[in-house]
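Hi C.,

You asked whether I'd gotten around to modeling the 143-residue construct. I have! Everything is below, sequence then structure, no commentary in between.
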Amino acid sequence: MIQKNLSRKLTYKVSAALVFVMFLLLSSSSYSQSASDAYLNMDDAAAPGTLYAGTYIVFLTDTSNVSQIEIALGTGTGLSDVMTQIYNYDVTSGLPSGYTYTREGNKLTLGIGNYTEYNTYFGSVRIKNVSGTWSSSFNFITN
């Protein structure tokens, strides 16, 4: 009788552990699309001393099941007062004037048009998967 109860308890513990591990594996895979790194280039070739051509560089952790990429640029933490744009994954046409999209493997190069210079830019990137779930923001500061 004691051995039967111990066996039953062990079976429940193993089952609970397996359910927990499966939950972790499945939940982490649904959020696997995210940015592993991002930065901003501002090139003054557009109009030296006046306007700067902006380019976002984004590195994805995974390119499967990506639906959209949202980028934002602001003059302070959490702000998007300079620009915000959502790019459809691997769609290179129909973008606003001055905006571009190219991808080489996990690296996205996103042209964002021309802007006046600020001393510091605060950027963020989010990735939306095909299930409609947005990743956490990848935030950075550049100057």
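If it helps when you're writing up: The two ends are 72 Å apart (CA to CA).

Thanks,
B.
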